[in-house]
Amino acid sequence: MPALLEVRDLTVHYTSGNGAPAVAVDELSLDVEEGEVVGLLGESGCGKTTLLLAILGLLPESAHVVKGSIRFRGRELRTLSGAELRGLRGAEVSIIFQEPALALNPVRRVGPQVAEVVRAHRRWSRRRCREEALSMLAEVGFTAPERVHDSYPHELSGGERQRVVIAQALACRPALILADEPTASLDSTTQAELRALLGALQSRFGLALLLVSHDLGALAALAHRVLVMYAGRLVEAGGPTQVFGDPLHPYSRGLLRALPRAPDPAGSREQRIPPPIPGMSPDPAHLPPGCAFEPRCPDRLPPCVERPPQETRLADGRHVRCFKYGG
Ligand SMILES: Nc1ncnc2c1ncn2[C@@H]1O[C@H](COP(=O)(O)OP(=O)(O)OP(=O)(O)O)[C@@H](O)[C@H]1O
Ligand SMILES: [Mg+2]
Question: For the domain bounded by 5-236+251-260+274-288, which CATH number is listed?
């Protein structure tokens, strides 16, 4: 049985002017199974958003899929026409963007913006689409969906707007949602509420989620598998307990050390600022010939400068791209 989503060897370049192309996604492969939550982690600029946009054929003009395949339910998405992709987006695969404030039209009431997603994919009457929108607003936790339906985006809080965006994404009951840091711009209480909502909706609808997040709490609670990305490549994949408890790749170790954890319940008032990984991510237009993490790596070995490591599958089911483990 093929996985719900199968990405193989995907490479995406951005070209601008006459300079070398920027390699945003580099020979990346991943699977998402039906009903599975896959967390994707990696520092700014490593290619997470580019990957999600490429999956749904939403890349800007300056980006090119150079090679690879993207299959959803066994069907190659790269060769679909614009109309076929529009039929798929929202109905079978939805995306929640990084900036919830930009996802809604500010001069229109939010209810019709949910209803129009339904209308785009179903031959239903206006009235039935409106009822469906109201029921989706109730699904995402609004106790007064009628009031929210008639509100403009600016009349809602950031957390409420993100609930509306989730209602839009869910409106046609897709099998897969690509979520790009859906809670990043919210305060920690609202983040926790939305994290619980996503978890509840995921199990209620049997949704598969490809969830980009730096919220380790959310990933530990929701993800069945966690992928770590660096400079356009996957460097490590495993269960959340494996990756968070005992990261293998030197980059994953540095990244997890550098991400803030939940506050200490013992009540220490001292806010520890975690040390960042020394050095900078490589320029995607000038990636080194070897491992892209080598210049920052505390564990570098002689082959690391010569060629990029291949993926090694370990006995416990984890995957890692590092010469320490084979490569
Ligand atoms: N429109 C664009 N034109 C040229 N380069 C781009 C464009 N968008 C992104 N890039 C480059 O592609 C690389 C990957 O960017 P991307 O936005 O996918 O990263 P990201 O992992 O989503 O980062 P963040 O965590 O900040 O959202 C970066 O080096 C970025 O500078
Ligand atoms: Mg991004």
Answer: 3.40.50.300
Ligand 2 centroid to Cα of residue 322, in Å, is 25
| CA angle (77 as vertex; 75, 82 as ends), nearest 5 | 125
Model pTM?
A: 0.94
> pLDDT tens digits for 11-53?
999 998 788 999 999 999 999 999 999 999 999 999 999 999 9
Give the pocket of ligand 1 (CB within 6 Å).
14, 16, 22, 24, 42, 44-50, 60, 62, 98, 284
- Give the integer Cα–Cα distance in Å for 172 and 188: 29
**How far, in Å, from the CA of 49 to the mean position of ligand 2?**
4
Which residue type is seen at 173? R
Annotated domain spans of the chain: 5-236+251-260+274-288
For residue 1, give Cα distances in angstroms to 4, 6, 31, 34, 43.
9, 11, 12, 11, 33
The ligand with the least distance to the CA atom of 64 is 1
What's the 86 CA to ligand 2 centre distance in angstroms? 22
For the chain, where are the E strands, in sequence order? 5-14, 22-32, 37-41, 63-72, 75-76, 93-96, 176-180, 208-212, 225-230, 233-238, 312-313, 319-320
Residue with tokens 């990346």: 28
Q: Which atom of ligand 1 is nearest to the CA of 214?
A: 25
**Closest to 201 in 3D by CA, of 94, 113, 285, 110:** 94
CA dist., res. 305 & res. 104, Å (int): 46
Neighbours of 176 (CB within 10 A): 23
Nearest CA to ligand 1 atom 12: 24
User: What does the alpha-carbon distance between residue 147 and residue 130 come to, in Å, rounded to a whole number?
Assistant: 13
